[in-house]
Amino acid sequence: MQDLNTIQLREMGGVYFVPNVYSDTLFRIVDALKESTPKSWLGILPIYDDDVSQSSLKTAFAEDFENELAVMKKELEDRLANEKTRTSTLKERLLRFKELRQRSQMYEDLLRFKAEDLAKGITELEKIVEKAMLEAGD
């Protein structure tokens, strides 16, 4: 589901928002699931473009991305505090931050708002990684 740039809408349980641009892929997944495991069920509920839906999705987006960013920050801090980190690992973190920023921008466009706090958080983590890379001198 991560490849579909989903947002988890419930902390416990498999309820996700999938952007419309991925609907063809989602329908293929539903068809494949029906064929391979007929007792399984994957429901699709459309979300309408109204103020209530927009507000709910913005809240879910913010919570989901803030949680992901917090986990990434903790992981980075732990790694840098406890061991010498290879430059290749740090570069991989920069790539993950870039992907998170791209996902964030897609949702900003979709939901017509700016997630400035998230962008600042990503930039802060990128600076930590870049500083660690300079200190490593690799």
Task: Draw up the topology in text.
Layout: E1 7-8, E2 16-17, H1 23-36, H2 51-82, H3 87-111, H4 116-136
Antiparallel strand pairs: 1-2
Question: Would you mind describing this structure in some detail?
Answer:
- β1 (7-8) and β2 form a beta hairpin.
- With 138 residues, this protein is mainly α.
- The radius of gyration is 18 Å and the shape is globular.
- The mean pLDDT is 86.
- The chain has a two-stranded antiparallel ribbon.
- It has four helices and two strands, in the order ββαααα.
- It starts with 6 loop residues before the first strand and ends with a helix.
- α2 (51-82) packs parallel to α4 (116-136) and α3 (87-111) runs antiparallel to α4.
Descriptive keywords:
single chain; mainly alpha; about 65% helix; about 140 residues; 4 helices
